[in-house]
Amino acid sequence: MTRLPDGSVPVPDRPLRADARDNRTKILAAARSAFDDLGPQANLREIARRANVAQGTVHRHFPTKQALFAAIITDRLHELTQLAQDLRAEHDPGDAFLAFLTATVVNARDNRSMAAVFEEAGSTEEMREAGRQMDAELTHLLEQAQAQGTIRDDVDLADIHAIAAAVLAVDAHPAPGDTDRTRRVTIVLDGLRPPRSRDAAEP
User: Fold this and answer.
1) Is 93 helix (H, G, I), strand (E, B) or coil?
2) pLDDT digits (tens, 9 = 90+) for 151-168
3) DSSP labels, 14-71
């Protein structure tokens, strides 16, 4: 029988029961709501109240607030991966790539508390794997758009992350009376097109 270094016998992972899965889903939804309203100061008691579960139930699923942060971020990365896959299936490569970047920037803008959550969470293997999956999908979108000729071929994944971060940083401080914030995103992302594509698009 295989034993761990401390002499204990490893217990295999078991699927959560239906009621436990439901509770986990409710807790994560409540946590997102609490973080949107209160930021990282949201505590487990408030999250339990919003999820309509006992605080002990929250602790059983997520022993620490950092574990809950990590689960939220992991779920969000999975959602972005699914979005990239859906866009790739439904649109041509260039449109899919730009739509994905626009959606992620706009969503991050509307959920700025998540930026603080990222800082609080500490990396976990699940989170890192979810990030790798999202980056793989984003790379696939980018390469297809470059092969189509709608995105310049001297751009790589590191550039995309830097550009998205820069757009968010600028967007965090809009000019007085600036109501058309999506236009700024469009202008920046338009710079990813090859010069000939931009020239052809001009009236």
Assistant:
1) helix
2) 999 999 999 988 888 777
3) -PPPHHHHHHHHHHHHHHHHHHHHHGGG--HHHHHHHHTS-HHHHHHH-SSHHHHHHH
186, 88, 66, 65: which is closest to 136 by C-alpha?
88
Query: Dihedrals φ, ψ of 194, to 5°?
Result: -60, 150
**C-alpha pair distances (Å), 154 with each of 12, 142, 192:** 47, 11, 9
User: How far apart, in whole angstroms, are the C-alpha atoms of residue 114 and residue 80?
Assistant: 14
What is the spatial distance between Cα 59 and Cα 25, in angstroms, rounded to a whole number? 14
Distance (Å) of CA 36 to CA 69, 111, 113, 173, 191: 12, 6, 6, 19, 31
Position 113 scores a pLDDT of 57
Cα separation of 101 and 142, whole Å? 10
Query: How confident is the model at residue 6, as a pLDDT?
Result: 45
pLDDT in tens, 11-54: 344 445 677 788 899 999 998 888 878 877 788 899 999 999 99
pTM above 0.90, yes or no: no
Q: Give the CA diameter of the chain.
A: 74
